[in-house]
Design goal:
It contains 6 helices and no strands. The chain has 97 residues and is mainly alpha-helical. Helix 2 (17-30) runs antiparallel to helix 3. The radius of gyration is 14 Å and the shape is globular. The N and C termini lie far apart (47 Å).
Length: 97
């Protein structure tokens, strides 16, 4: 018996909306749909502008889409709100170089 569909339903019910958005964006990115991944995270950012995972993943996908100005803005938004995530920001910047 295949319970993979049930597993996805349970995961959707137990995750926050922001976590679901990050997961959906990753799935879109994995399918080569970078624009859709960015769109999903932009919508999530509107709903939860403080969410660290949304902001950092949005920054990462914007960099991959050669939208550096928007990526920098997402990073500038994330750092003051989450100063303890400086290491995460540094790793993201090193990955771009």
């Amino acid at each position: 018996m295949d319970f993979s569909g049930l597993k996805e339903i349970v995961k959707d019910l137990t995750q926050s909306a922001e976590s679901r958005a990050v997961s959906r964006a990753l799935k879109s990115f994995s399918k080569g749909q970078l624009g859709k991944a960015i769109e999903i995270l932009l919508e999530a950012k509107e709903a939860a502008p403080e969410n660290e995972d949304v902001l950092y993943d949005l920054c990462r996908y914007l960099v991959l889409a050669n939208r550096g100005g928007e990526a920098a803005e997402a990073l500038r938004t994330a750092l003051p709100r989450h100063p303890r995530s400086f290491r995460r920001a540094s790793e993201l910047i090193e990955g771009v170089r």
